[in-house]
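Annex B. Sample input.
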Amino acid sequence: MKKDVYNTEIIVDVHPLEKRVAVLEDNKLVELFVERKDRQNIVGNIYKGFVKDVLPGMGAAFVEIGLQRTAFLHYSDIVTDFLDIFENERPAKRLNPRDSSQIVNLLKPGQELVVQIHKGPLGSKGARLTGQISIPGKYLVLFPNKNKIAISRKIYSQSERGRIRNILSAIKDPDFGIIVRTEAEGSDEEDFRNEYKALVKTWRLAEKQIKYGKGPLCVFEENALENYLIRDLFGEHVDRLVVNDRTFFKRIVGYLEDLSPELIPSVELYREDSPIFDAWGIEKKIETVFHSRIYLPSGGNIKIEQTEALVAIDINTGSFTGKTSYEETVKRTNLEA
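Annex B, continued. Sample output.
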């Protein structure tokens, strides 16, 4: 990946109840992410659960996975790969996908199974589940118990698609399927190999919890901040990643050892006594974001007001008087805004 011309830093502030990630470009706050313990996104999480009830009339089952409400698994979302993972048996007969009454032949109350959250809880309804298990990465999505390679349609070049398929065919185990994401275009063999190894390791750890852990149990958190940080934010274009928590720091380094070991020198542990966001002036930048008036470098400002019908944005020249003409002054103020 080509290095950006500006200095990019990622600052991570870890507290017991929340984690905050700030992305700075030339010391300007360009992105802010907040993960609160009581508001975590559970879509994509993988659970070892057990069947609470089977309703053939609805073609569905309610599954206990440890959330406030039992989750919902429809017959059409059942994948037999993990239904009998604990007995290492497979259904002898392929079931009719249109006959949802056959759900009673697959699921029984008390039966353990592995599921992934497809849709989160909404109102009085519990989460919707799927039996199709996947582990996403930056370039690849891993499917345990599958064997096909599928490539994003947005990678248009046939030669590039062939190159990627040849690389993955050589490094992939036969019991894993892979979807190649659009971001993988142009990546080299080492990128694919490192990510594939990391995804397989993630699944092996989840698989171990599935085998030995007592359900209901979450065995993989897709939207855990460290996963998102490594998968989508951190890369060669980032000059450094600074973390103020030793445990979180070790987890990041541990993931990078398998995925991108060359990035480890860019990860730093913040050891000072002052709050990490204060040290970079991020708290003041955050306060500015929520002000209704934003001041421009020239002396002009932007006024943002939300009403019931619309959001009004007013650009003012403020103390900026310009040097040549009024039109030039207005143009420069608008360009800054």
